[in-house]
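question for whoever is on the cluster today: can someone run the full assembly for these? two chains, 601 residues total. i dont have access anymore since they changed the login thing
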Amino acid sequence: MRPSRAQQLLVTTLGVLVAAYILAPFAWVAVSSIQPEKELFSVPPHWVPRILTGDNYRFIFTGKFPAGYTETGLLRGRISEKARDALPALKNSTIVALTVAAANLVLGVVAAYSFSRLRFRGAGALYTFVLASRLLPPMALAIPYYLIVARLGLLDRYGALILIHSAVTLPFTVWFLAVYFRRVPPDMEEAALVDGCTRLQVLVRIVAPVAAPALAAAAAFAFMFSYNDFPFALFVTSTIRSQTIPVIVSATAVNPDVSFGVVAVTVVLTMLPPVAFALLFRHYITRGLITVVTTR
Amino acid sequence: MRLSPRSIPMSWKARETRYAYATVLPVVVLVALFTIYPVGYAVSTSLREVVLYRPASTPFVGLKNYLDIVRGDFFASAWGHTLTFTLFAVPLATMLGFGTAHLLRVRSRLAGFLNAAVLLPWAIPTVISGIIWAWIFNSTYGAFNGALYSLGLISSYIPWLSRPTSALFCVLFAHIWKELPLTSILYVAALQAIPDELYDAARADGAGVLATLGRITIPLVLPTTLIVVIYESMVAIVTFDLLYVMTGGGPAGGTSLISYFIYNRMFTSYNFGQGAALAVILALSLIVFILVYLRVLRSEEVYRE
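^ ran it for u. tokens below:
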């Protein structure tokens, strides 16, 4: 049955409204980042920017103050200077998130495979324990995490974030991949074992290539959790040595004296990696999200 | 003849078992370090008086922290705000997700575009989405005020984030934006699982759009609805990041949901004993949701591929 013109119009209108709701905030912040400070404060706003400038970006990358800064005083300059920590913070975030993704791919994959294929004493209990751990509310864990990290001598180090983020993401990875592995028929693997392969060889040579999409999704989830984490990073980092991008951007953004245009630049830079990731791995992520929420 | 260890073939079974433990233990140990110790620590702290200015003296006080917290002024209001927020957030995220899922399934260029765009709010850090929405609702340069002003609906900008009730709704707006990707994707999967023949049959019987929706679609996506409602409730109850960047729990504690209240006890009042007691209460309340959630997942097998 062909939908009527009125139905088509309704669907299109609703689609445009939803697209606007989803995308307007991205557009607003992107447009804000390429306008001079003064323009952003006009009432009502210029919906189509009148003056475009790369000054805010140049400030983040080179430290050269945009024109008009001197009027607002030295204090503001110093506060906005803090926003330049965005670049090292992006580096910190990327290093930590990539390491967490790699840890998930190594530790998570072998553990998930063993849980799904091998029978050993306590397997059920250990699996349930690992899964149940992810259900504790983060705020209940944050303070003890701080103390563990302090005792390990890892305060304000990458190591602290990598350990915490791995501990939080690994249960997801193990669960997600164990579900996936169980669906793969074991015939090929059994044949390889009879031919004298070890379990690890079977996993690396036979299972991993077949499960590559699931592995990509698991790595993407781990990367994005680590990159996006806020409360844990807030508690265990204290200087730019290890502070991640959500910590730096939120610290600068909540300060009322900061330049709005400059923070808009840091927000845009922060969003680029996860947005690129999401678009690149779209299909894996969509399937993965469904599995994660709906499978036990 | 000497036997080197290598020449004694370890039994197949023993080797498999050893391999299994070697691969599983790193994950189990790491997870245990970051769950068992923290939970034990939180419980033990919650039973003692632990305040910043007396770090050396942490006497055991039994349930005093729990009683002080429950009897205190902000406990009831923090739970009240949390429940208000949850009661709005869950139905809105669920219904909007259900509706958006229909739009995502249309065959059109717009729907193809929406399918890519819908993931984006989920992808970016929650604090970043909070920062953007706080700007949108800002009282001096916010786009929301600007839009209402341009349309002639208001004559001067309104400080949305400085009034307790409207501030909670601003956070709600940002929260729904963040959750919409997940709920709509789950509903897309649920809708795909409904066989087309059912709709064909309904149409042949002359059923209208509403009858089809009420008799076929809604009952058949019910398992997904249950999962979405319970999952979204858990997410709404532990909301923290948005509050941190959008309102700081204010104004007048109007957006101090339970997680923010815990944070506040810990880092503004520095009363770690009470903060830990609150954390234990929150964890126990969530366990109720979790048990129901697992129950639902176990009983529903619609997602078996």
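summary bc i know u wont read the tokens: Chain A has 15 helices and no strands. Chain A has a mean pLDDT of 87.
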